[in-house]
Amino acid sequence: MASRPPIEGHALVVAAGRGARFGGDAPKQYAPLAGRPVIRHGLEVLAGHPSIRAVRVVIHPDDGPAYADAVQGLGLLEPVTGGATRQESVRLGLESLVPLAPEVVLIHDAARPLLRRALVDRVLEALATAPAALPVLPVTDSLKRLSGGRIVGTVAREGLVRAQTPQGFRFRAILEAHRRHADTPATDDAALAGREGLEVALVAGEEDNLKITTAGDLARAEALLRAGLVPRVGQGFDVHRFGAGDHVVLGGVRIPFERGLVGHSDADVALHALTDALLGTIGAGDIGTHFPPSEARWRGADSALFLAHARDLVVARGGRIAHVDLTVVCERPRIGPHREAIVARIGELLGLAAGGVGLKATTSEGLGFTGRGEGIAALALATVLLPA
Ligand code: MG
Questions:
Q1: Residue 299 pLDDT grade (very low, low, confident, very high; cuts 50, 70, 90)
Q2: pTM for the whole thing?
Q3: C-alpha 329 to ligand 1 mean position (Å)
Q4: Do 105 and 171 contact (CB within 8 A), yes or no?
Q5: Residue 167, helix vs strand vs coil
Q6: I want to staple 28 with a disulfide (CB 3.0 to 4.6 A). Which of 22, 36, 66, 242 is the partner?
């Protein structure tokens, strides 16, 4: 895997706009894109990036429930409410980060869901030596100036570039720029940095990192997300034995029972099998490789941490989790009454709708260690879509 950029930062994602050009009922940042809300795609990349310490999103006051639905399981900072313009929303977001004293901040538009980790890396790398960094692309089409619907001139392409996000900045510098220029509109944050005389380093942007403005853009993003992705299936298996206790944790759900499961963590056999299945899709070892039982810090750990880590690794490879399927083998406790809660919890952690999480429970007809009630076994399959 690529080495980590030399600098760590916070991320601020702007999602407060109404997107008048998009149409439809829901704001574009919450529209479904390849099975999940537009906003979640970029947030998964930022939240899973090892050099991004925390992610704050600026939302519209009407979007609280849609936002909460979209970001389940990602572990983001609490959202803050934006203002009347993008510029005001960014400033409010920056002010909300002051108590965290970030060294650098990456400001990203929620409407650019095809953010890739490599672009985040390039912006962070540039910030190691420059106070601001801007991803840009060349202008290749001819540019014409119109007046009254008629061409009145051709604009030279030389010296023109297209600016994207995430734009990166030394935190104090961009905060000061926003405070000082709150009343003078700017089209993006790099423009404000320029007004302050900050040197803006240019890094290569990405054609695929498009901004969703119209329904057509959404269709293009969908096609880009699906193109070049191949399915991979991973398998996982785990067993934990019964011991003293009054509950077991299965699929992230606490189930009262006359015994407990023995293990270094919370012994959630179902999430362990799922974690291994996800790791299997990218050939990234097994759960013990990433969370050695010899390390005291994993004692009693919530296994949701392990599953979230595997999810982040898949996302970091440009992958998307399409489906998981789980079978739990035991005589008791009965899984049926907890099925809905388990499916919901796993869906929340992996960003999968209910149909994307399979859960079966079976006994082993009194045979073998599960039949004798000595423990619980779990088998899992995970299907992800990875860049070819
Ligand atoms: Mg285990």
A1: confident
A2: 0.79
A3: 14
A4: yes
A5: strand
A6: 22
